[in-house]
Queue: 2 jobs
Job 1
Amino acid sequence: MRHRFDLRIGPVGFRIGSAWRAPIAALGQLYRGYPKPVDGIADFTVRLEPETRWRRFVRPSVAIRGDFTLPDAAPLALAHGLLAAEMGMNLQMALGQRRYLILHASAVERDGRALLMTGHSGAGKSTLAAILGERGWRFMGDEFALLDPATGLLHAFPRLVSLKNQAIAAMEAEVAPDRFGPRLSGTPKGDIRHLRPNDAAIAAMSAPARPALILFPRFGFESAERPMGESEVFVRLTQASTNYVALGEPGFDALGHLVKSVPARAIDYPDTGSAVTMAERLWREAGL
Amino acid sequence: MAGPCYEADAPGARLHRSLDALDLIYHRPSGMTHMVSEPVPQILAALAAGPADAAKIARRLAATHDFDANGAEDAIAARLAELEAVGLVRRA
Amino acid sequence: MKRLADALRDPATADGLDAEGWTGLIAAARAEQLIGSLAFRLEGRSLPPRVERIMEEARTSAAQWRRSALWEAEMARRALRDLDVPVVLMKGTAYAAAGLDAGVGRSIGDLDIMVPREALPEVEPALLEAGWEWVKPDPYDDAYYRQWMHELPPLIHRERDRMIDVHHTILPLTARVTPDAAAMLAESVALPDGLRILSPEDMVLHGVAHLFADGDLAGGLRNLWDQDRLLRQFGADKSFWVRLGARADLHGLGTHLARALRLARRIYGTPVDRVIAGRGRLSDLWFARRLTARDGWGRETRKLTVFAFYVRSHWLRMPPLMLARHLWTKWRKRPA
C-alpha cells in the first residue's frame, strides 16, 4: 500500500495502509508520539482503499477493509478519511479482539482504580471521560475498555476521542487547539471532531487499573441517581460488549466477577458540570 | 397423561452464578449464557437424577423443596419446553 | 501467497521471518481463512513472543468456531431426529465432528447438511418448527432455488442467528457436472450420535467439486489445504486411492480430481497417486497463480486472473441461456 502508519493503542498494535496520503498524514499528526506495535508486529491490519479502481481519483471513495470487514459497509468520502481509519480500527477490535473482553464504555483512572461509564450512544460517556481526563483523572479511553479475564484488570485504549455535535464546543472550551483534528461535517453521525488524549493519558497507556465503580450516565435530565442491581448491570454490559459471546467461558467468568465485585449507579445529569460533581461524590462515597 | 420425557447434560456442562434477582447459567456445549429464575435451576438439578417428564420432576422437587404443588406440573412443563428451545434440555 | 502455503506445508520455513514477514503472513492467513490452521501448525514452535500471542488467540478462536459448529449440528440433529432421514454433515463441521486432521484449526461458518431430495418436504417444516426461518422472501429466487439449486433457500436460526444450508446434492442441478447424490448418501458413514459424514472418498470429491466446478476458486487455498489434510490422513491406505479413482469416475469428477491432486502436490507437497493425478498441464500454473493471489496486506492480487476465474465459474454453474434469463429477471426486478 502506498501510504502507511503503524501505532499501538494500549495493548493493541495496528498497521494502517492507505491508497491516499491525507488520512495517513492526519493520523500521523494526531497520534504523534504514540508507541509503535510491540516488536514491529501489528495485531491487526486496516486498509483504506478505493471501492473500485477508478474511485481512487474520481469522487474518491474510501472502503474500509482489513483483517476483519463488514462486507456491505458503505464507503466514506476521502474528506472523512480520518474517520474511516478510526472506524477501521474499531472494526478490528469489535470483530477480532479475543484476548480482552471488550466493554463499550469510557474509562478514567485515579490511584490505580478505574471508573467505567457505559450507556447508549449520546449518553455522554465519551465527553464525560474526556472532561474528567482534564480534571485530574487519567483518561483511559472513550469507547472501548478492555477487561483482562485472567486478571480482572482494565486496560486502557486511549484512541482519539470522537466528539460529536454539541460535545465539540464543550471540549473546544477546555482544551488547546493543537489537540483537535479537522471538523468533519456531513458524516453519518453528524459533525465530528477528533480529540487527541492528553500527554498523561498517552504516557500511562500501558498501566492497567482495577475497576472500582460503574456509572450508567444519561444526559439531558434533572440530576438523579439510583443503584443498579447485578442482573441489570450484567445485561447492560453484555449488550455493550461486542465480543462477550466469542470469548465463551472466560468472558462469563470475567463479567460475572465484575458485576458482583464492582458497585454500579445510574445517573441522570443536565450538564457535564453536574455529572462531574456526581461522579466525584460517588467515587468518594464508594471509599475510593 | 404423561408429557414428554426430557434429559439434561450432566451438571458439569453448566456453570452457575447467582446474581441479585436472577441466575446466570453458562452452557459449555453451546457457549450460550442464559439468565434464568426459579424454578429453572431447580428443574435442571432435578434432571441430574435421570430423564423425567414434568410430573416426575414435580415429585422430585417436592421431595427436596417447599413449594405449592398446585399448577406446578403445568408451569414445569412450560419451562421444559422453553429449555428445550434453547438447548438446555432435550427429549430423552 | 506462496509463503503462506509453505508455512502450512513446512512450518520450519517460517523460522527466518522478520517482523514485516510475520505481519504479512498473518494478514494473508486471515484473508484466506487459514489463520487457525496456521496457528495449530506452528503450535509448540519457538516463535517471536508477539507472534505466539497472536497464534494462541487464533487457536482460541478456532476452538470457539468448532464449538459453535458442533452445537449447530447438534441442534439440527435434535430437530430432525424424529424423521427417519439420514442427515449428512458436510465440509468443516464434518471434519470437526469426525475428529479429522482437516478439522484442526479450521474456520467453520454455516452448517451444511445433505439429505435425500425426497426428504426435503419433511425436513423443511421440521427445521422451521425448531426456530429456523427463511433469509430471503423473494418468490422468484425461491422458485429458482427450489427448481435448480442443490440446496433449500437459505435458512437462519431466529435466536442463534446462525445459518443452515440444506443440500440434496453437492452441486447445482444446472452445473455441467452432476455427481451422484444417492450414491453419496448410500456410502455415508454414521457417527456415534446418529449424524453422518460422507465416506472418505466422497469427502475428498466434494471438496474437489467445489474447488473447480462450483466456485471461482475464491477460498481455494483453504479448500486445497483441506484436501491435503484429508489425502494425507486417508492416503496411507493404498485401497483408498483405488476407491477414490472409481468414485471420481462414478461422479464424473475424474478430470477435476486429477487437477486437484496435482495442485495439492504442487502447492502443499501432498503425496498423491501418480496415475490418478495424471500428467501436468500448462493450465496448472494458471490455477496455482490464482490460488496464491494474495499479498502481505491481505489483498487479492492478479486481478485479471481472478476475473477470468469468476467468468469461468458462472459458465460452469449455469448453461448460457439460463444464465442470461436469470440475470435479466434479477435486473428487471431491481428497485427503480
Note: Residues 3-96 of chain A form one domain.
Job 2
Amino acid sequence: MKTENHFDVIILGGGPAGLTAGIYLSRARMKTLILNEGTIGGQMVLTHEIANYPGVKTISGFQLANNMMAQAKEFGCELKSNIVVKNTDLNGRIKSVLLEDGRKYSSYSVILSPGGRSRSLGVKGENELRGRGVSYCATCDGDFFTGKEIVVVGGGNSALEEAVSLTKYAEKVTIVHQFDHFQAFEHAIEEAKSNPRINFVMSSTISEFKGTESLEGVVIKNLKTGEEQDFRTDGVFIFIGYMANTESLKGKVELNDSGEIIVKPDMSTNIEGVFAAGDSISKRIRQVTVAVGEGTIAALSAAGFVNQLKKTKEHELLFQ
Amino acid sequence: MLYTNLKHIESSAEHAKIINENENVMVICGRMGPMCIPVYGIAEELETEYKHVKFCDMEFDNPESNVIRNLPEVRGFMGIPFTIYYKNGKVVKATSSIQTRQQVTAILNEHFGATVNA
C-alpha cells in the first residue's frame, strides 16, 4: 500500500472545485492527486473574462485557472491532465482509479469534481460538421458568418444573448427552440424580440445537419406536428445548456434524474469517504465562486475523514 | 497575444522558416478562446513526449496568419483553431475547432510517428 501511487485523497476533475480542494488538502499536508480528463481549469478556462470573482477586478478564466493550478502545485499537489479514466472503484476503505493507459492510483478518499460540458443535439451530421458550420461558441466563430444566415438553437439566457451578439455579423438569425416559450430572463427575451434581424421558430428542433465540405442546411422538425422541413443555413450555433460529466459514475454513486451527484451539506455522497463538488453536483447555481466554496468544504470533509481513518485500528491493519 | 508556452509564430516569413527547417511541425492558429485553449494545453503537454515535432501557435487575428487561413486545406473551416500539421514543409493534415488529446495524438502518430514511450 505504501507506494508512490497511493494518496490520501484523489480528486477527479481539475476545475475550480477540484483545484480549490487540491490547494486546501495539500496545504493540510495531505498527499493529494488531481486527475483531469481535459485541460486543467474546466469550464472556467472557457470564460473570456471573469468580473465577479471577489478580490479580483477582472481576470480571464484561463489566467485564474493557471493561478489556481500554480497555487495547488506550490503546496505539493500532484496534477495529471488530459488523462482518460477507464474505471473507478469507490467502495471499501481503499478507493482506486485505473487510467486507460494502465496507470493505477489508490487513495483513502475521493473527491468527485468532473464538472460539466455543453450539451449537444446528438443528431445526424452534427459531429461531422463541427467546425465546418456547427459551432458552440459565438465569440470564437461568429465572424466566419459575416453577412450570412444562421440558426441559433436554444431558449435560455445563453441562446438569446448570443443570438443578439451574432447579429453583429450575421444578416439573419433564426432561433429554433423546443418549447413555445423561452426560459431566459425577460430582458434577454425582449432584446432578442426587438432585434429586426432575429426570427423565431418555436416548438421545434433540428433533426439533421446537411452538408459535405461545410454545412449547407438543416432539417427542422416541428415537435407538435412531427412535420420536418429542409432549411437552408450557413451556420448553426447550439446553446442548449450543460450536462454533468457523470456517465462513468452511474451505478457507483447516487445521482439524480439529471445525472448530477447528490451530496449532503458537507459534500459527502452516499459512499463513505467519497465527496463531490462543482458543476457535477445537484444544485441550482453554477458559478466559479460556488464551486470554489464547495471544493473547500469537500476538502475539509475529506481531510477530516482521512484523519479519522488513520487513527483507527483498521488503518493499521491495511498496512500489515 | 497568445498566453501559451508554445513557440509563437509572428510572421509569414517566420512560419515559412519553421516549416522548412523542421521535418514535423504542428501549428495551432487561434485565439484565447474556449475552443482553442484546450488544444494549446494538449500541445504543451505533448511537447515533452513528441520531441521530434515542433509545436507552435499563431494568432488568428494577426494578418500574417493568412498563410494558414488561405490554405486550400482549410476551405470550409468555420471554427477555430485551425490546426495544421506539416511534414517537410507540406500540409499533411488540417483540423478545425476543438480536438481531444486522443485525436491529436492519433494524427501525430499517423503522420509523424509515435514517441518511444507513447
Note: Chain A touches chain B at residues 38-41, 45-48, 60, 62-63, 81-82, 84, 130-137, 139-141, 144-145, 213-215, 235 (CB under 8 Å).
